[in-house]
Amino acid sequence: MARSQLFRACSAVRRACWQWEQRVDLSSLAFSDARPATFVFLGPPGVGKGTYSGRVSDYFGLAHIASGDLVRDEMRKGTEIGKEMEECVKRGDLLPDALILRVIREHFMTAHSEGTDRFLLDGFPRTVEQAEALEQIADVQLAVNLALREEVLVEKCLGRRLCKKCGKNYNIANIYLPASNGRPEIVMPPLSPPAECVEHMEQRSDDTEPVIRRRLEVYAREAQPVERFYAERGKLLDFEIFGGIPQTLPRLLEVLKPKMEMPQPISRHSSAA
């Protein structure tokens, strides 16, 4: 057997073993009773998943779960799971789905004990394997796929700023694209920081144009199977953004009102802000 064939065969065996271990780990996470109703927000970096999912969850009374924040909190607190995650990060490994799902499930259970039975999840899933695993612990009723033109995404990512003092996020990008080729104009004024935060603004070191475009390429490649996963189940809603929060949020809420109350799958269709 040629070396390349042997390498591919070994890789396939390792991948199969990893997937089997994931299924074993995740089987213990399944709820013994009904899975909680869950909505997920999908979309590329810079589209505003965190912003819109937070506002939507407030409006509909959903518990908002940002998977990235949960992971960082576990690592910061030094919990048992957090230590496992930190070891993975130090080794340069991807976090196992079982660890992320365990944290999400624990958050589900805590919120459920406090009377919450509907959730909105952003930042997860990112792969079909994660989407399949999520089905074991959550009843995903709708996946909202936010979309925005690439040139706008790049500008928004370049404009992201974080206040080191208060921890809030802002965006100094002032975006205007005229209407062209049948597409409406895009107007997004900056989300400027207050005066007391200006001197404390910092930009992420990896928010450079080459890195941002690379992240968008990777996302586009990885997102298609996840979108297809939910579309095949009649649970995907495409929503293209054409304006800032004041213009987009009311239209998004209007589209979501009937969907958030429907337990059965819906047909995929497109909406525009």
TrEMBL record:
**CDD domains recorded:** ADK
Q: Which transformation does this protein catalyse, written as a reaction?
A: AMP + ATP = 2 ADP
Any GO molecular function = AMP kinase activity
Cross-referenced Pfam families, in alphabetical order? ADK
Which top-rank group of organisms is this from? Eukaryota
Q: Does the keyword Nucleus apply?
A: no
Q: What is its EC number?
A: 2.7.4.3
Q: Which UniProt keywords apply?
A: Kinase, Nucleotide-binding, Transferase
The record's annotation in PANTHER family points to:
NUCLEOTIDE KINASE
Q: Can you tell me which family this protein belongs to? A: Belongs to the adenylate kinase family.
Descriptive protein name:
adenylate kinase
